[in-house]
Design brief:
about 220 residues, about 25% strand, DNA-binding, single chain, alpha+beta
Length: about 220
DNA sequence: GCGACAG
DNA sequence: ATCTTGTCGC
């Protein structure tokens, strides 16, 4: 797919914060999806050579049958350290490289990490969504910010994730008796719809098939 | 000031 | 994220 523009990548945290504060207001928290949804994609990252090389993987699956229809990999030098709250600056450049190679344009992209469940409401899923102006969902394996009530250990149950009296996402049980995942909207989708798609993409394991396939690619030696 | 902290 | 084998439980 064609990527038309992206801002210059920051060199320090001050610049990074300025970008997050400027772009956060572009996030669209309601459903603006192409219907019907035919393809969903997962993106994930891996690192090589002591972390100096970033490896981005994209997997496009048909929906709702979740069959892999296209994949791509991209490598580039790692140019930003891992700092909680600034993950997108470390991972998105390589992800854009990998997405550029894809021919089948997905209708939704599921990201490994938070969407608006972020200190400045602009985690990696939102950042990628705004840059591409495409629907994105954040599915994180652990918590960055927010609090929530305990939730039943049955698949499909969820609780709102709250931060400063605001609902910023959902803690979702994708598999009975297994640790939940943290779902938040990235861009052009509502929280309830995001939860529905995450469950639809998670027929068997804790993580969505999109993420699992992308993860295998990103880890493949 | 102290603790928390996506991947 | 990554370094790494076996092991507990359904």
């Amino acid at each position: 797919m064609k990527i038309y523009q992206d801002h210059a990548w920051p060199v320090n945290l001050e610049e990074a914060i300025a970008i997050q504060e400027r772009l956060r207001y572009q996030v669209i928290p309601s459903d603006q999806l192409k219907q019907p949804v035919q393809y969903v994609a997962g993106v994930d990252m891996g690192f090589e050579s002591n972390g100096t090389i970033s490896r981005a993987a994209v997997a496009v699956l048909s929906f709702p049958d979740l069959q892999v229809v296209e994949t791509s990999l991209a490598y580039r030098p790692t140019s930003f350290p891992y700092i909680p709250g600034f993950l997108s600056f470390r991972e998105i450049p390589a992800v854009l490289d990998a997405l550029e190679k894809i021919k089948i344009i997905p209708d939704i992209i599921l990201c490994d990490g938070q969407g608006i469940a972020h200190p400045r409401r602009f985690g990696i899923a939102s950042h990628l969504g705004v840059i591409l102006d495409m629907p994105t969902i954040g599915v994180a394996k652990s918590l960055l910010i927010g609090k929530h009530e305990q939730l039943p250990d049955t698949k499909g149950s969820w609780q709102p994730l709250i931060h400063k009296s605001e609902t910023i996402g959902a803690v979702l049980r994708t598999r009975s008796g297994v640790k939940p995942v943290y779902v938040s909207i990235g861009h052009r989708i509502s929280l309830n719809t995001a939860i529905d798609y995450v469950l639809s993409c998670t027929p068997k394991y804790r993580l969505p098939e999109t993420t699992r396939i992308a993860d295998k690619l990103a880890s493949a030696r």
